[in-house]
Every structure is written in structure tokens, then in C-alpha cells.
Amino acid sequence: QQLTLLDILKCLFRLLLVLIVLYLIGSVLEDVLYKNVPENTRKRFLTKWLTVDIGIVAAIVLAVIFGWWCLILPLLIALLVSLIGTSFYPEYNSMKVSMKSLHLVNAAKAKSEPKIEKASDDVIIIGPRQ
User: Fold this and answer.
1) How far apart are CA 48 and CA 46, in angstroms?
2) Alpha-carbon distance 42 to 3, whole Å?
3) Cα–Cα dist 17/64, whole Å
């Protein structure tokens, strides 16, 4: 059986739909289960990404059941990437803190720099007639 462009687009649509839905479910669960306070940062991160991981495994099982063979390899790759990302939580947290501090430094720098307004190129000088 030869895959057509329409088949590839259907498969890509299903893959994107699965990944977006799983990410949204993980985001909702992290907000519902844990308040957004520093003590819960690790729990929120793990809740979101373990939900995505478990959801991808369930999606792989469903893809096998329904015979959507084109989804299995991309879902396995997504699972691998998600598991690797989940296992690097300490690096994620330090990177998140670094990005926040970089943003704060840039915001403070932007506020402290004097604003230079560009003068208009069309300058009209009015003076006495000679």
C-alpha cells in the first residue's frame, strides 16, 4: 500500500492533535492539583510531564489497536524525548531560573537607559526676513 499526501497529512494531524491534547491535559492537571508556589515547582513539573508520558504510551496502544501504524514511530520518538526531558528536571529548573533572572536584568537595564527620541528630518527654521 502506497501512502498518499492526504494519508501523511491525516497522520500528521492525528499526531499533533494527540500531543496538543496531552500537553493541555498535563497543564490543567498541574494547575488543578498544585498551587503555583515555589514549594510545588517540582510536583507541578512532574505532574505535567508524567501525564504527557503516560498519555503517549496510551496513544501508542490505541494506535496499535486502531491500526494507525504511521503514528507509532513518531509517538515513540515523542515518548523518548519527553522521558529524557522529564529526567532532566534539575537542569530545567536552573535554566528556568536563569531565564527569569536574565529577563529581570534586561528589564532593569531597559528602564535605566535614557530614552533617545529621534528628531524629525523635516526641520523648519523661522527667522526674520532679510
Assistant:
1) 5
2) 43
3) 17
